[in-house]
Amino acid sequence: MSKGDKRTPPPEPEALPAPVVDAHTHLDACGATEAADVRRMVDRAEAAGVGRVVTVADDIESAKWTVSAAGWDERVYAAVALHPTRAKDFGEYERETLAELVRDPRVVAVGETGLDYYWDYSPPEPQQEAFRWHIDLAKRIGKPLMIHDRDAHEDILRILDEEGAPETVIFHCFSGDADFARRCVAAGYVLSFAGTATFRNANARGLREAAALVPVEQMLVETDAPFLTPHPFRGRPNEPYCVNYTVRDLAELRETSVAELAAALTTTTERVFQLDRVAAS
């Protein structure tokens, strides 16, 4: 593949036979800055059968923007938190701001929070402290906890157990193998699969085994755009419309129809994020 191909977004696919929700994307990181940008991106997604998106913050300015974006377009919802790689800068201002933003009715989750032991931007201790604070916030506000877990499976489960997990816990961009997936499912957690679950390299084998076994009642689908573009477009720019490719790949992996999987994923997503409550607010 040439460098030019790497810069070219994947083709916009034929619409899914039933609509789905992109459960985790970053519209601002995809290049959106104002309402018209958001509308264009979500229009592209809707044309591919991805009718709604949850746009997720990773710092305080992004959190403010995501809440604004969710107010610009009724197809957009928000999640707010401080990303674990930024946890060393988690002070009183950040806590107060997030505690205020999360009360917006279009904020459907506290996230993404958790632990990231791959990058060294923040030491483990402030990450764990911030994670515990976000767990408490999710429980106080009664909204799902959206977890970022990179190379930190055991500490994530340990801290959830120590603090007492919120009613709904979502492992965004689930990265574990089949055994870890079974443990999370047994705990009642929801696993969200991104384009990584479509990859064909040897490192993705365990993840694909996990994606094949998770009950659809505990399964979401996401892009994590602009990152993690699904196979066969890995490395090219990602956008919410590309969740279409992931749904099709997962349907084949799980030996079910695209229409059946899409409809079931939407039912789970609506329940997990309580989207009927948002629509009624």
What does this structure look like?
The mean pLDDT is 96. Helix 5 links the parallel strand 4 (107-116) and strand 5. It is globular, with a radius of gyration of 17 Å. The chain is of the alpha/beta class. It has 11 helices and 8 strands. The longest helix is centred in the middle third of the chain and has 18 residues, at 124-141. Helices cover 43% and strands 16% of the residues. The chain has an 8-stranded parallel β-sheet with strand order 1-2-3-4-5-6-7-8.
User: What gyration radius follows from the Cα positions, in whole Å?
Assistant: 17 Å
Largest sheet, strands/sense/barrel: 8 strands, parallel
Overall, the morphology is globular
Number of helices: 11
What class do helices, strands and sheet pairing give? Answer: alpha/beta
Percentage of residues in strands:
15-25%
Fraction of residues in helices? Answer: 40-55%
- Mean pLDDT across all amino acids: 96
Q: What is the tally of beta strands?
A: 8
Instruction: Return the string of H and E elements.
Output: HEHEHEHEHEHEHEHEHHH
What is the rounded distance between the termini? Answer: 48 Å
| Unreliable runs | none
Strand line-up across the major sheet: 1-2-3-4-5-6-7-8
